Every structure is written in structure tokens, then in C-alpha cells.
Amino acid sequence: MARFLIRRMLSAVLTLFVVSVLTFLMFFALPRDPVSGMCPKNCNPERLERVREELGLRDPLISQYAGYMKGIVTGRDLGSAQGGRCDAPCLGWSYVNNEAVLDTVTRVLPVTLSIVIPAAILWLLLGVGLGMVSALRRGTWLDRAAIGFSLAGASLQLYFVGAVLLLVFVYNLGWLPVPSYTSVFDDPLKWAGGLVLAWLSLAFLFSAIYARLSRAQMLETLSEDFVRTARAKGLPKRTVYGRHALRAAITPVVTIAGLDVGAALGGTVITETTFGLRGLGRTAVEAVRAGDLPTIMATVLISAVFVVLANVVVDLLYAAIDPRVRLG
After folding, report:
1. What is the pLDDT of residues 168-212, one digit of tens each?
2. Is residue 97 scored above 70 in pLDDT?
3. Where is each ABC transmembrane type-1 domain found (predicted)?
4. Which of 75, 110, 179, 279 could be cross-linked to 87 through a Cys-Cys bond (beta carbons 3.0 to 4.6 Å apart)?
């Protein structure tokens, strides 16, 4: 296990290094002036030149990249106009927002985490549970209802579901407040009340997908030889379905879940826009529109970190879920 974890972490670090290099080259090595988009519209030529000097754009690309990565690890000097020393992890300075990029990320990342993590728990419990029950009750009304639920969820879009939930529960019935973000440490009830519609929207759409996937995997596993052998040995249904079939069927579901959760943590743009929340995804979109390259760089790297870490966690879960998997 220790050897496997070390290999996976080294692979993760290498992947993040490649992503950082490609992202940096994409934004700073193209034959155009990156400063013209970062600096506000009222920048004069003197101001543009100072921004180029502060970003080190006159240096070779290797030196620019090394300075950026050094800032993430040890911090760096941003210049007197940007508050001087930037402690690690220093993600640069946003000339559009006129603040350190780390301050922006620190403000918006908890919003995305508060949306995705509870929603992921809901969609995994509902989707996997519904899919497994549907497979075990194949051909019954419960199975048909689960299939109908899956088709409905797969056919709808989040901005439609979110708008309907807002119309019904906020503006017509008045049961819930207008979606907003409050720190869970300040007021847990207000935190949950402001985000519950976002959770339900994501959970409904994703659980429909996971219900179909779980059902298909469970039906395939139930036809495997080891399940028939367990039945022939006279084991109880709970043992056959729970200990043997479920553990084997859920492995592909865990793979997809790791990718989905990792990608969602990188930014749920549509969800945040639909419910008027400013998280990492909406911040990235606004940065693209404004040409705020330091913020775009930071959001891309953070998204990559979430996806890579999610894959590492999935690999580790394989050994605990599926007895056929052994980590060397």
C-alpha cells in the first residue's frame, strides 16, 4: 500500500507539473501581449509598461515560469504597488480585481466546496441506492419508476431545474430564503438554507445518471459466476447482494464518481450562476471575460489539483471495496 501510494503521489505531482507548464505556455507564450487584457481599460502606456516589469514579462519564459512556481512554494515579491511580499502559496496579483489572487480564491473556494460536497453525498446515496434496488427488483413497478426517474433527470438541464425550484420554493411558497452563502461555522442553519436548492438540483441530475449506471452494473454482476456460486452455497441474500455483488458492481461507479466530484470541485459554473452564488467556477468565467490571466492560471491549477487528488482517492478505495483488487 505504501509503495502504491508513493507511486500515485509521484504520478500526481508529474501530472500537475505538466498541466502547469502547458497552462503557462498557453497564456504567456502565445504571440500576443497578455498585459493588454489584464490591465484595466484606463491604463496608460506607462502603467502597462510597469505591469510588464512587475510580472517579469521581459525575462525568458523559463525564468517567468520558475518565478511563478517559486511563488507557489516559497512566496515572492510582487512589488510595492501590490503590497510587497506575497507569502506562499502566492498565485500572483489580479490587476482586474486589484487584489492578490490567493485572496480571491480564499473567498470563493468555500462556496464551491459547500455546494459540491453535500450535493455529492446526496447524489451518491440516492443514485446508487436507487440503482441497486431497481436491479434487485427488476421488472417491478419500482424498477420502472427508477427508469423513469433516470430518464427525466438525464433529459433536464440544471438551469431549468434550478429555476423551477427557485420559483416554487422561494418566490411562490416562500419556504426557503433566496440562495446565498454563509459560512457553516458562523450559522449552520443559514448555511444549509441558502444552499439546499443548489444541493437538490445537482443531486437530482447526477443521481439520475448514477441510478442508470448502478443498475446496469448490478445486473451484470448478478450474472457473474461468483454470485451464482454464492447462491448455490446457500448464503443469505443479504450476504450475496451486499457483500459480494454490491462490492463488485460499485467499483466502476466509484471511478465515475471520482471524476465527477473532482471536476465539480474545480467549478460548478452553471449551478453558481443559476443560484447567484460566486464560487470558483463563476470566478473563472469572469476572469476569462476580463482577461485576468493570473486568476485564470490559479483556477486551472486548482481544478487540476482536485481532479488528480480525486483519482488518487479512487485508486485507494478500490482495495477497500473490491476484494479482487490488490495494491502492490
Report:
1. 998 998 888 899 998 888 889 999 999 999 999 888 888 888 888
2. yes
3. 109-318
4. 75
Q: Which domains, from first to last, does the chain contain?
A: 33-90 (no CATH), 104-321 (1.10.3720.10)
Among the listed residues 174, 202, 166, the one whose alpha carbon sits nearest the alpha carbon of residue 275: 166
Residue 68: predicted pLDDT: 81
| CA triple 72-74-75, angle to 5 deg | 70
Give me the amino acid identity at 132.
Answer: M
